[in-house]
Amino acid sequence: MADPVIVAHNLHLIGGNGIVAIADLQVIHWGATLLRCFWKRENGRDRIALPGITFRSEDDAYRFQQAALGAMRAVAEKMLEDPAP
Predict the structure, then answer these.
(1) Please, are residues 23 and 8 in contact by the beta-carbon 8 Å criterion?
(2) How far is it, in rounded angstroms, from Cα 34 to Cα 18?
(3) CB 30 within 8 A of CB 50
(4) Is residue 1 part of a domain?
(5) Neighbours of 22 (CB within 10 A)
(6) pTM of the prediction?
(7) How far apart, in Å, are the Cα atoms of 40 and each of 20, 29, 70?
(8) What is the number of domains present in the chain?
(9) In a domain, 54, yes or no
Protein backbone atom coordinates (compact mmCIF):
# COMPACT_ATOMS: atom_id res chain seq x y z
CA MET A 1 0.00 0.00 0.00
CA ALA A 2 1.40 3.42 -0.94
CA ASP A 3 1.53 6.01 1.79
CA PRO A 4 -1.90 7.67 1.87
CA VAL A 5 -2.06 11.37 1.14
CA ILE A 6 -4.23 12.74 3.92
CA VAL A 7 -5.62 16.21 4.42
CA ALA A 8 -7.15 17.26 7.75
CA HIS A 9 -10.28 19.45 7.62
CA ASN A 10 -12.40 21.10 10.32
CA LEU A 11 -9.79 20.52 13.03
CA HIS A 12 -10.93 21.44 16.54
CA LEU A 13 -8.36 21.48 19.32
CA ILE A 14 -9.77 19.82 22.45
CA GLY A 15 -6.98 19.28 25.00
CA GLY A 16 -8.94 17.28 27.56
CA ASN A 17 -9.48 13.64 28.59
CA GLY A 18 -6.54 12.52 26.44
CA ILE A 19 -8.10 13.98 23.28
CA VAL A 20 -5.82 16.47 21.54
CA ALA A 21 -8.09 17.29 18.61
CA ILE A 22 -10.92 16.11 16.37
CA ALA A 23 -10.88 16.46 12.58
CA ASP A 24 -12.26 15.08 9.34
CA LEU A 25 -9.52 13.24 7.42
CA GLN A 26 -9.71 13.24 3.64
CA VAL A 27 -7.76 10.29 2.20
CA ILE A 28 -7.04 11.37 -1.37
CA HIS A 29 -6.10 7.95 -2.79
CA TRP A 30 -9.20 6.32 -1.36
CA GLY A 31 -11.60 9.05 -2.52
CA ALA A 32 -13.00 9.08 1.01
CA THR A 33 -13.32 11.37 4.00
CA LEU A 34 -13.35 9.90 7.50
CA LEU A 35 -15.48 12.09 9.73
CA ARG A 36 -14.72 13.07 13.34
CA CYS A 37 -11.42 11.26 13.81
CA PHE A 38 -9.91 11.64 17.27
CA TRP A 39 -6.25 12.50 17.82
CA LYS A 40 -5.58 10.90 21.19
CA ARG A 41 -2.58 10.96 23.50
CA GLU A 42 -2.24 7.97 25.82
CA ASN A 43 0.83 7.11 27.88
CA GLY A 44 2.89 9.69 25.98
CA ARG A 45 1.98 8.25 22.57
CA ASP A 46 -0.16 9.91 19.93
CA ARG A 47 -2.58 7.95 17.78
CA ILE A 48 -5.63 8.45 15.62
CA ALA A 49 -8.77 6.68 16.84
CA LEU A 50 -10.65 5.10 13.93
CA PRO A 51 -13.38 2.91 15.38
CA GLY A 52 -14.57 0.19 13.05
CA ILE A 53 -11.72 0.51 10.55
CA THR A 54 -9.27 -2.35 10.11
CA PHE A 55 -6.18 -2.61 7.95
CA ARG A 56 -4.71 -5.58 6.08
CA SER A 57 -1.48 -5.39 8.03
CA GLU A 58 0.05 -3.67 11.03
CA ASP A 59 2.43 -1.92 8.64
CA ASP A 60 -0.50 -0.43 6.71
CA ALA A 61 -2.11 0.69 9.97
CA TYR A 62 1.15 2.24 11.18
CA ARG A 63 1.70 4.16 7.91
CA PHE A 64 -1.88 5.42 8.00
CA GLN A 65 -1.47 6.54 11.62
CA GLN A 66 1.73 8.42 10.81
CA ALA A 67 0.22 10.15 7.75
CA ALA A 68 -2.97 11.06 9.64
CA LEU A 69 -1.04 12.42 12.61
CA GLY A 70 1.16 14.43 10.26
CA ALA A 71 -1.88 15.98 8.58
CA MET A 72 -3.54 16.86 11.89
CA ARG A 73 -0.30 18.23 13.38
CA ALA A 74 0.27 20.45 10.32
CA VAL A 75 -3.19 22.02 10.64
CA ALA A 76 -2.83 22.40 14.43
CA GLU A 77 0.56 24.13 14.06
CA LYS A 78 -0.88 26.53 11.47
CA MET A 79 -3.84 27.29 13.75
CA LEU A 80 -1.53 28.05 16.66
CA GLU A 81 0.78 30.24 14.52
CA ASP A 82 -1.99 32.38 13.00
CA PRO A 83 -3.71 34.65 15.50
CA ALA A 84 -7.50 34.44 15.50
CA PRO A 85 -9.25 37.42 13.87
Answers:
(1) yes
(2) 20
(3) no
(4) no
(5) 18
(6) 0.81
(7) 6, 24, 13
(8) 1
(9) yes
